[in-house]
């Protein structure tokens, strides 16, 4: 029953963390009654595996779900495991400043400011109201940026291997907002997970120790995008990987920026636009219908109307088709394939360019500023979501705790975030599941270009 984050808390001398462990907090799952726990049955002790997917995250059926500051119990945990109704779902007192001067019982103090009775004040992502007797009543949301986590990480870089930062655009937002609107990849379905990785014949020892697509194919690789408050990483990473591969295979003749908005707006039957999408379906949409370029259908970060017909004449929409394409042609790809392990992923990148990966994102990732990321386990919330990103290279670095292998990965939160929009993450250990579901696809480049360029066949 000893938690990792307790150990870290003690190791770094940050005991204040231990005292904030059990503010009651209700997750908003009440409109999804279940059955969840009823189906999987376990109820005792801490059992991290005892979880069920819910709204792009997981809920739990173990006794620990009620101990953390954020309650992530399944909706039917209380009735099924405890035989009782859930505790009331109201906000609770988070901060109390009792002012003993009777003259001043009509106000509260917040960060050395006076808040008068009935007035509201914003504390990060929580709204507080000054109630009678100088009590400040606050919401108890977990925020995207938790200054406590940021400062623990920054005071112990040798322990964590990376540094954290406060981002203006994330400050004041709830973790739920972050998970819903800054990620946007629905967990791969079982049949996709069981897709057999492709086999490649190569000598793993001949792989370079460092590799960066930008250096190998300068000018061909997509830059960093900002998905804004739209859960569209499924579309952005897919369009970017396809674009990079078009440029590489055509040796720059088709250095396109394919439209993620095309996917968000038009792949509507089976995806959920800004509320997330499945990668396998995104790839099969491009395979079936193709994409237009960014100039034709620029990114707006919301569910805009699909103004281009899937197979209509492109020139009517003032969009240019691919080189040598007819008026109806779109940028297409072949079937998506999965890569099985670290060295297979590396080999694939050296041969064909960036690949797409899906990772689990926890609260601390939003604050990443630089270094080699590993999930810190500091967060008291187990809330998490899936995010898809583009692996563009790798390397090794002597860091605080010896030699550390990493992936270099393009994120989609703008250039201000992380290392100029990129992040590095531990390689070879399946950190945050980033090596579990890596996929790529070959672009359908016109034969004339292909023949002119002698495309190597890596099968
Ligand atoms: C949270 O749950 C309450 C009660 O079921 C509901 O009224 C409210 O709309 C929910 N809020 C969100 C953001 O889903
Ligand atoms: C769940 O948490 C609440 C509030 O902290 C506490 O009153 C209650 O005893 C806990 N229940 C269990 C079963 O641990
Ligand atoms: C941060 O730590 C302080 C104590 O140092 C505590 O009062 C506060 O509630 C913590 N904030 C969060 C968001 O956990
Ligand atoms: C984080 O940034 C926001 C906006 O720039 C600022 O208002 C807030 O005080 C900062 N928080 C901390 C803990 O520095
Ligand atoms: C990865 O898988 C390939 C087979 O596809 C195998 O030859 C290779 O040894 C594996 N590498 C590692 C590091 O497991």
Automatic annotation (TrEMBL):
GO MF entries: cysteine-type peptidase activity
Keyword Cytoplasm: no
Matching Pfam families: Peptidase_C1 (PF00112)
Keyword Glycoprotein attached: no
Domain SMB: 39-89
Signal peptide: 1-22
SMART domains: Pept_C1
Sorted UniProt keywords: Disulfide bond, Signal
SUPFAM superfamilies, sorted: Cysteine proteinases (SSF54001)
Gene Ontology biological process terms, A to Z: proteolysis
Cited PANTHER family: CYSTEINE PROTEASE FAMILY C1-RELATED
Sequence similarity: Belongs to the peptidase C1 family.
Entry protein name: SMB domain-containing protein
Organism of provenance: Phaedon cochleariae (Mustard beetle)
């Amino acid at each position: 029953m000893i938690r990792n984050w307790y150990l870290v808390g003690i190791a770094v001398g940050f005991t204040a963390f231990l005292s904030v462990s059990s503010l009651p907090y209700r997750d908003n799952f009440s409109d999804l009654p279940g059955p969840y726990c009823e189906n999987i049955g376990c109820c005792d002790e801490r059992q991290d595996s005892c979880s069920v997917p819910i709204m792009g995250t997981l809920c739990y059926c173990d006794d620990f779900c009620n101990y953390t500051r954020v309650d992530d119990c399944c909706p039917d945990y209380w009735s099924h495991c405890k035989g009782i109704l859930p505790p009331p779902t109201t906000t609770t007192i988070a901060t109390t400043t009792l002012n003993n001067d009777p003259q001043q019982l009509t106000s509260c103090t917040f960060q050395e400011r006076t808040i008068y009775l009935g007035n509201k004040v914003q504390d990060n992502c929580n709204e507080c109201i000054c109630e009678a007797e100088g009590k400040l009543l606050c919401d108890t949301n977990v925020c995207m940026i938790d200054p406590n986590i940021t400062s623990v990480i920054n005071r112990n870089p040798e322990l964590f291997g990376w540094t954290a930062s406060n981002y203006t655009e994330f400050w004041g937002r709830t973790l739920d907002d972050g998970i819903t609107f800054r990620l946007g990849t629905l967990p791969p379905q079982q049949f996709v997970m069981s897709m057999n990785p492709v086999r490649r014949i190569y000598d793993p020892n001949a792989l370079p120790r460092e590799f960066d697509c930008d250096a190998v194919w300068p000018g061909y690789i997509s830059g960093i995008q900002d998905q804004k408050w739209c859960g569209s990483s499924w579309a952005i990473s897919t369009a970017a990987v396809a674009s990079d591969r078009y440029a590489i295979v055509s040796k720059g003749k088709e250095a396109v920026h394919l439209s993620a908005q095309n996917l968000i707006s038009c792949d509507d039957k089976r995806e959920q636009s800004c509320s997330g999408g499945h990668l396998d379906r995104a790839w099969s949409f491009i395979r079936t219908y193709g994409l237009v370029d960014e100039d034709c259908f620029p990114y707006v970060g919301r569910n805009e109307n699909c103004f281009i017909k899937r197979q209509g004449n492109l020139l009517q929409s003032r969009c240019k088709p691919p080189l040598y394409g007819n008026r109806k042609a779109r940028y297409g790809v072949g079937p998506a394939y999965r890569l099985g392990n670290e060295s297979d992923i590396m080999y694939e990148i050296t041969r064909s360019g960036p690949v797409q990966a899906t990772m689990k994102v926890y609260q601390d990732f939003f604050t990443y500023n630089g270094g080699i990321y590993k999930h810190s386990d500091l967060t008291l919330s187990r809330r998490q979501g899936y995010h898809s990103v583009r692996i563009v290279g790798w390397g090794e670095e002597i860091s605080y705790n010896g030699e550390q292998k990493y992936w270099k990965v393009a994120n989609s939160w703008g250039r201000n975030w992380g290392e100029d929009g990129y992040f590095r993450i531990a390689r070879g250990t399946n950190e945050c599941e980033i090596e579990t579901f890596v996929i790529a696809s070959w672009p359908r480049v016109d034969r004339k270009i292909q023949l002119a360029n002698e495309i190597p066949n890596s099968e």
